[in-house]
Amino acid sequence: MPTKKTTKEEEVKKTPTPKGKYHYANGKRKSSIARVRLYKGTGEITVNNLPINKYITVKTLIGLVKSPLTLTGNKQKFDVSAVISGGGISSQAEALRHGISKALVEADPLNKPTLKKAGLLTRDSRTKERKKFGLKKARKAPQFSKR
Question: Which among 46, 75, 98, 120 is least surrounded, fewest beta carbons within 10 Å?
Fold first, then answer.
């Protein structure tokens, strides 16, 4: 009789995605891309079918993600469902924040001035610089020896 192996993903209960109409937006930061859907709901945030506190374990980053919702007063009005790929945890959180901000503007254009003033609608375009030939990294040169 074969035994079933349990993986870490199976242990964590996956939350079902909400159904119905939604507002969609893309959020980006470094190499992270967050595809965000905003549903009418109670304020739950799911990332890659996991609750946000299971996906992002750092409390400050969770606060960072929720900042556009608290700023506009929509914390209990919308459910957020997001699919994030690429990058690290910090850049994924910032991409999610950017996506939520853009989706809130799509849901209600009156949110735009408050989010724009807080700087949440502008995409942070800083990415990793490419490596140049003859150098060890983007700018680091090999050690110079005069003799």
Answer: 75
